[in-house]
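This follows on from our talk about sequence and fold. I would like you to pick a protein and set down its sequence and fold. Go ahead and set the record down below:
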Amino acid sequence: LTGITFGGDAATRPTVGLGVTFAGRALGLEVEASRTADILGATTPSANVTLLTLGVVGDVDLPGPGVKPFVVAGVGLLRSGLRPASINKDAESNLALLVGVGLNALISDNVGVGADLRYFRRIERAGGVLPLTSNLDFFRATLGLLVRF
């Protein structure tokens, strides 16, 4: 998948990744990995974000070609860090929440194009105890090749 991040705390930046969905008739399970470089733009150059997420997908699995809408919600690991290492030697990993909507347009029974819009929010513990806080959130729009087996 390829796309862009925007809104919230993010500057408009390209994103690349790969997603795999195991889908049934109405529900599925999705695993996705993506990376966005310089997500904060000129304010913090070289701030990279890597996401590894697990989501539940609710879709309309109609037989044959056509447009099939879906929704997704999940959790994952959001790893952020600054480069060069002299600025911040350790990357920071936190929990991330996501929600999104999308469309899969199948040209044939097995090949098509998928597009979605997702909202991500990094969650971290405040002072080592609850409640949870967040200081990074953003949207991501993606477009990708869809292959069904």
